[in-house]
Predict the structure.
Amino acid sequence: MMDENGIRAGTTWRRYYCPSSPNYHRLCDNVIEAMARRYGAHPALIGWQTDNEVSGQICYCEHCQQAMRAWLKEKYGCVARLNRDLGMVFWAHEATDWDQIVFPRRDAENNRANPSMRLEIRRFFSDQWARFLNRQVEIIRLYAPKTWTTHNLPGFQIFCDLYDLAAAHDFLSIDFYPKATIDPPGRVNIANDITRSCQQRPHWVLEVQTGTPCTKFYKAPVPRKGQLAVYAHQSAAHGAEGVVYFRWRKSPAGAEMFGNGLLDHDARPRRQYEEIKRLGAEFAKLAEALPEYDAPSEVALVFDYADRCNAAIHDFAMDVNYFGYLTEWHNAAAALGLNVRFVRSTDDLSPYKIVIAPNQFIASPQTASNYKRYVRAGGVLVGALRMGVFDVFGKPSQLTMPGGMTDLFGAEVEEYERVMETNPNSVTFAGEIGGSADCRNWNYYLNDLGAKPLAKYDKEFYAGRTAISINEFGAGRAVYVGTMLGAQPMVKLMGFLAAQAGLETLPKDWPAAVERTRLATPKGETVFALVNHADAPQSVNLALDGLDLVSGETGSVWSLAPLSARWIKIKAKGKGKKP
Amino acid sequence: MMDENGIRAGTTWRRYYCPSSPNYHRLCDNVIEAMARRYGAHPALIGWQTDNEVSGQICYCEHCQQAMRAWLKEKYGCVARLNRDLGMVFWAHEATDWDQIVFPRRDAENNRANPSMRLEIRRFFSDQWARFLNRQVEIIRLYAPKTWTTHNLPGFQIFCDLYDLAAAHDFLSIDFYPKATIDPPGRVNIANDITRSCQQRPHWVLEVQTGTPCTKFYKAPVPRKGQLAVYAHQSAAHGAEGVVYFRWRKSPAGAEMFGNGLLDHDARPRRQYEEIKRLGAEFAKLAEALPEYDAPSEVALVFDYADRCNAAIHDFAMDVNYFGYLTEWHNAAAALGLNVRFVRSTDDLSPYKIVIAPNQFIASPQTASNYKRYVRAGGVLVGALRMGVFDVFGKPSQLTMPGGMTDLFGAEVEEYERVMETNPNSVTFAGEIGGSADCRNWNYYLNDLGAKPLAKYDKEFYAGRTAISINEFGAGRAVYVGTMLGAQPMVKLMGFLAAQAGLETLPKDWPAAVERTRLATPKGETVFALVNHADAPQSVNLALDGLDLVSGETGSVWSLAPLSARWIKIKAKGKGKKP
Amino acid sequence: MMDENGIRAGTTWRRYYCPSSPNYHRLCDNVIEAMARRYGAHPALIGWQTDNEVSGQICYCEHCQQAMRAWLKEKYGCVARLNRDLGMVFWAHEATDWDQIVFPRRDAENNRANPSMRLEIRRFFSDQWARFLNRQVEIIRLYAPKTWTTHNLPGFQIFCDLYDLAAAHDFLSIDFYPKATIDPPGRVNIANDITRSCQQRPHWVLEVQTGTPCTKFYKAPVPRKGQLAVYAHQSAAHGAEGVVYFRWRKSPAGAEMFGNGLLDHDARPRRQYEEIKRLGAEFAKLAEALPEYDAPSEVALVFDYADRCNAAIHDFAMDVNYFGYLTEWHNAAAALGLNVRFVRSTDDLSPYKIVIAPNQFIASPQTASNYKRYVRAGGVLVGALRMGVFDVFGKPSQLTMPGGMTDLFGAEVEEYERVMETNPNSVTFAGEIGGSADCRNWNYYLNDLGAKPLAKYDKEFYAGRTAISINEFGAGRAVYVGTMLGAQPMVKLMGFLAAQAGLETLPKDWPAAVERTRLATPKGETVFALVNHADAPQSVNLALDGLDLVSGETGSVWSLAPLSARWIKIKAKGKGKKP
């Protein structure tokens, strides 16, 4: 591994290897083959985790540079095409030979190189890391064909296309370390939902917070009583088939010596050990009562890997918190009790009632036509802000935003600006939604080309211009959201969208601290996973007779202890009738 | 280009060239000669811009190191003299051979090297870049002897002696990107005035803010209606002969893809395009009505390149915002309707009524005697704070501050200190000015050696000691300002200075948002450029009959639309009589 | 000197030398021998200062790497033992050959390498720098056997074991630059006390703040009238035999040109020069009246070099301000008029009534048994927070905290957490102390194994659990402080400890701004050094007849001018009777 300043990593940390080194590949092969040969048929073996938290890191060494050139050559054929497609003419970066394609050489430079080339570098390294993992899986399969392989994602830090990683393994796993009392519950849910969404089967959580936290990367209070169990219940409700606490006992040495453990360094079982022991017994009961289930999802959030890269590449200019904005929409859906799955913009969208694409920067012709097909057939699509600003190469689209979809949205972006201290603004919603809301970060104002305004700006020279619009297109509706709103107005807007899509949502008096996830068994039974995220008791009314699958209690009104969960199966008479 | 850590720049950004490389010079010569030969006589050619925003960047490569040694050898003759003049004895940096003169090798080191050598490094690179540009101009002149050449300065970022750059070209130009709603109007004025002041003819603005801003370097709201035109009117009033909006259409690729444009990526003419189109028509009328003019300046601000370098070299210790403090004085003059030009401390100062040297760190014997000559002949000179702290080598002066000018100011600095949270202070002005004002950043207290106190400190152990003094010297007056004041007290102090110099200033009820620049035609007619910087209408009374050179309206009271300008020629009867 | 990125220092700053280079050693030897030979017998010579502010800096060059390997080989004998003792197995860092032991290669890596190896690196460089200084001392002694040598410590920045440095010289000295009006007086006291404590005789202050401050490292108001004298009086009261102001006249050139001086660049004597002149006369009188004295110390604070390193190595995870927390305890003792000396945890503790070990991270068997011996014999020991978290290699202890001393404290740590915004807490003290106090930074809650609670937590799931406990052990008491308190509660707690130890403390109405240090002459007379740290007059009542050793005044009630000191010898009748 070599950094952008040409300094090769030493061997005193970890992850000092290069994903393109033939020597390293050969030696890895040897190790993996030896392990797979030795343990592949071992009866205690349940599966394989390859590597650890691969993050798509860029290595600037000569091996990687050569591999990147080969990858580009394969993709573009000739430098003239690469020059044209990536706009290398700017600042005279045109190459006349493949050898002239070089990585940026210095830290400061890296951030100012051609964004289109930077996107290609990200794409290349995503491929390169997926290949590196795949190589390991192939060897393992030779010797252990019946066990699964997985890879544990490092939360949101990753710069790899998750779908490529999922394809390389039986399923994906994720690691997360929520900060007790600090991180909102939605962070755990979105992490689970993303991991679950990339594959055709449930995922695992391979590392989750335990114990007394105190590490190089982590500053937070200790998890409260019940908190560790809540993480597991949340994860299970959001598709996890396995949850592994990290780790059994704190490390006796090395850089992570203060990292968490169910046991402390002195190996004495304490509070958290006992909690997890009890949790094991609960989940054993639950597994018997609920052997299989899924969370049928009405709402889809679009997550295209290239746009996550674009947000990072243009961090200053675009000023978009990619996962942050996805999380805001996820939270709004969760506040209404709606299940969410993540999709790519070119996936089949027909299973979903609402598709939200808040960060759709690249609007390829395929994406645009997929969206039009979806809405024409009756779907509700939500676009936002800088939708369609790029072509597939990460160059600016020459079309008026939202690029190639002004007919779909019945509106086009006229002008946009950052919201700063000197130009605060707000929007007033149309009568069917009502009220007003402050604007954050960006204001895009629209020309109405047939769409109906849902909200208009209150101030500045674009006062009275449309901020949010809705357009009927075929049997469906396309909504464009031109500004960023606070949490409460987003829930209100999401409620409007749910009504448009004919979805039922949580009753108004549902307590905010209780998360309700609606699950379905293969037989069509409905189960509600209820999670109390508050450190105080709560009570909810499901309005349908149900059975607590763990405690065996029955009823329709349920009390929840602080930081606890219940899994309630709705009695047969209520079957098919949504609450 | 090599950085201080020895890392050579890659080719994935821009400005990766070394100003001393013979190979690079040779190849540049070839390109420029080819272009000049091809287009030098082209009828559409109006002039040449060399390079782009040269910033005096330091290259740490071997070519530059050798060139620097040659430059020092030329200047000092022998290392013994260099050792003595630059004080190389400190920390045993004395050289016994030219080859021992080396650039600092690391980032951290750079900031702690001998400040006198750092000043020489800055001076060398200023020369080196001027030579690099001059080389280009010489080739161009061979093939295009009748067209002008210019170079576009990068706002205030530059580390080159502007007078050297001006000498290399027919005139200088400047680029600026004011932040709409955020940057005060004075920033544009001072940028224009500095550029104009370095040469004997008007300058150009070669790049100015347009469009929807969103770049790597820039975070601001979009310019309001009228704002782009205001930038042009301000610039014209402050000496610009040409104003070029940057750029025609947003870049279709590369690192500046989100940079501004009169047209967006979709090339559709919108609000700002229409504004500039109208502006073109206005300026066409104006050019006809006012073919030639200048802004006669009563006030001069001193700007010595070496002191700008000193402020940067000693950024922590001296804690001086060099251009910031110049701007504060410029603003104070502007608030009273006084025109300002920039001068060097050794220039002929006789054209000015008031000369302000707020950052005169180096007081060479030439500077001191020039100031004395000026005051003796009747001028009003303002010195401040650390005046005369250095000798010409950037070593501390061994004279009591203000170095070599205590007779001129009739005062000397006794002691000084930073103003921090634990030692707030204020001054009370003498009766003729009156009132009091808070102190900022630095307090210098003075021994009165004949000068009359204008303000005294209120607190701490130097309570009652002089903060600001005035001294009669020959037919003039020398004022020393030992502390930093807020904007309003500075206007008050400037009003006192104007009265001393016999200058008329704006009436008390003049609206603060309206800038008035007094211009004179070659025939001696007076024209007032009025610029309304507010996003609200304003009205001003010129008290003299005048003619709007664009609209043809006449009168003495003028209404100004939000963010707009008027150019009013005073009717002949008012000629010569200042308002 | 080479940094962690492999960039070799240039010669344009200072301290660019490597402590392991044989060539550099040889040339140093030559210089020192030449100086010692020339001046060793000079009558004006009083002593030698070796080098300047050696800071234990890590050099990453090949010489140092080789030397470090030799040092490790000497210590561990074989790599297998090193692997085991330092826990190199983590992240596969096990070495099979000494050549595989390498320094971290990059800045980011450095911070994440094995903390146990990082501790060894710190220990090695401490040895290496002590050896480097010792080598110089040996040469000096050959030619100047009758004069002393000293080394001036750079305040708290140092990463060397002070006891090793003290052993290499006759005594240690310290440099400090307190920020007038900003830094609390305790900073100067603790710096003096630490330096004094490492040796069997008084120390020197070799550089102390003067003049108008304005340097690369320093931002503060100028010292007020009397402040410079106060620094000297404080230092003398805390064991300094010499105090040297830095420097005579401001430097005429180089990087420290704006550094302080008793004379300014113009060499004119001003306020501060006169103050120091008067001070010289005062100290001449004092030296005559009080030729010898010491400050008998009842309180010891534990300072183990390895733990100071551990705090820095684990800066994020442990989040301990090592000297900051020592200073808080020092301040609490000073507020009660108790004298403090610093000790190592394995020193003879019997001279002290109270021993406080607030940062005892490593609890070696030697430390644990020394503490038990001390308490068993009647001492009062204070442990805190993460006491005993490490073994001697800086690996986590596998014992329950406080490691190996649960019998001594009659308590053990059950769990701990950071205090953040989301989990504020407080403690309520037991009746004998009374009241409550807010918790800061960390909360450790305890199992009582015989100890009596002194304070309990008020909130969260550990409400009612013990925060501070006291345990009778043999003839003494062991107190464990599991949370961090504010300044006032710490004084209260210290008052409780003093009462337990039978120590008299300052009367309740003693003015907080006046520091009182109790000194004893070899004849057993009592002298009080009184220092007024306020910029306002104060009055104190010593309740015993005394004599001002400088002014010759007598009395028991003393007025103190702003920023001034008095040295009061108690009249014979009061001898031996503590106030």
